[in-house]
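Action item from last meeting closed. Structure (364 res):
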């Protein structure tokens, strides 16, 4: 008898759904006076950070995580709207219920974004493209909101596809298209390549997927460490990561690198504010609360300093997170060198709202 062989695995069918300007679109849907106008959710005309921007605002260069003052300077007619996270969460749950009509393998990334494995779909539709089309139609019908969808044979390309022709787009990257499509992709459009890594790659002469593919794994490892294997694979249109249903996130964090180093406590505290906003917003988006707050400082000589506090109850609100973060900053002062980066993270995550404000006092 011939030796048994493992069956050839069936190619995955992955959809990435990304709601178009989700928070801002909800506000424009609910307030007709905002439709067609540049809208920023979060912040104010005087202070704070933009959490989301409508496409009308993006035309002026307004982006999420941008200081409100900068956004207003770029778009004097910008309308600032207070975020309504409880509304966004409720709509997100409605959208996820639509996903669940088609597959049980759903990996939420944020309130407005998710991966779906529809290799086998519950409605018996003939293709992943048909599933994506049905999901987009159902979202529009039930919520009045527009979603973009990317369809491909892995998560990386599905993400690239959903962003390719936004807004209001459905784009498919087939196995035959994948490697060639990646060749012409600008390196800044690679999911997982942030601004700092993009700058490092450009300094090495890596401008496109083709440039990245031409670099051997050994060279990439020397420059990018453990991330090199991922870059090496996706440059060839390959990504073996499965869609993970009910993924548990271990931490939520954000950081920023300064244009000019500083050791001034007042300046550092000011630069922490948008990071606190981003971490707290992500915490709300994920429906998670954390018990441990960690402050990270990278000094001018590239050494790392961390300070952390934990408690038995999660941090309950943005004010509590700010109080702990600034307390950790005070513990780190004075710095022996100037700092070039500051970051903040929440870990020890729990699902749901915190029952009451937690007093974090145990340093670890």
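Sequence:
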């Amino acid at each position: 008898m011939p030796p048994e062989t493992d069956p050839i695995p069936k190619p995955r069918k992955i959809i990435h759904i990304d709601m178009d300007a989700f928070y801002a679109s909800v506000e424009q849907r609910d307030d007709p006076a905002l439709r067609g106008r540049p809208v920023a959710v979060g912040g104010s005309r005087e202070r704070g950070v933009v959490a989301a921007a409508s496409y009308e605002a993006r035309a002026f260069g307004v982006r999420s995580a941008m200081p409100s003052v900068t956004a207003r300077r770029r778009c004097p007619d910008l309308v600032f709207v207070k975020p309504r996270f409880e509304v966004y969460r409720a709509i997100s749950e409605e959208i996820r219920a639509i996903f669940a009509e088609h597959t049980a393998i759903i990996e939420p990334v944020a309130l407005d974004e998710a991966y779906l494995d529809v290799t086998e779909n519950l409605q018996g539709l003939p293709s992943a493209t048909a599933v994506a089309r049905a999901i987009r139609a159902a979202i529009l019908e039930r919520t009045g909101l527009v979603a973009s969808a990317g369809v491909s044979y892995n998560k990386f390309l599905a993400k690239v596809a959903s962003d390719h022709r936004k807004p209001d787009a459905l784009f498919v990257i087939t196995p035959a298209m994948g490697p060639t499509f990646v060749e012409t992709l600008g390196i800044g459009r690679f999911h997982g390549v942030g601004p700092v890594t993009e700058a490092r790659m450009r300094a090495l002469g890596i401008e496109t997927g083709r440039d990245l593919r031409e670099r051997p794994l050994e060279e990439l490892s020397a420059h990018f460490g453990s991330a090199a294997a991922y870059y090496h694979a996706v440059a060839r249109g390959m990504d073996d990561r499965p869609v993970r249903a009910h993924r548990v996130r271990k931490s939520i964090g954000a950081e920023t690198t300064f244009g000019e180093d500083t050791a001034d406590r007042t300046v550092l505290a000011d630069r922490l504010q948008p990071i606190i906003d981003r971490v707290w917003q992500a915490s709300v988006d994920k429906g998670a609360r954390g018990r441990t707050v960690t402050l990270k400082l990278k000094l001018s000589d590239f050494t790392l300093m961390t300070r952390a506090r934990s408690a038995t109850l999660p941090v309950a609100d943005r004010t509590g997170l700010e109080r702990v973060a600034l307390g950790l900053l005070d513990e780190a002062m004075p710095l022996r060198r100037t700092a070039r980066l500051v970051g903040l993270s929440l870990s020890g995550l729990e699902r749901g709202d915190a029952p009451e404000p937690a007093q974090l006092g145990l340093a670890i």
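Note appended to the action item: Residues 353-364 have pLDDT under 50 and may be disordered.
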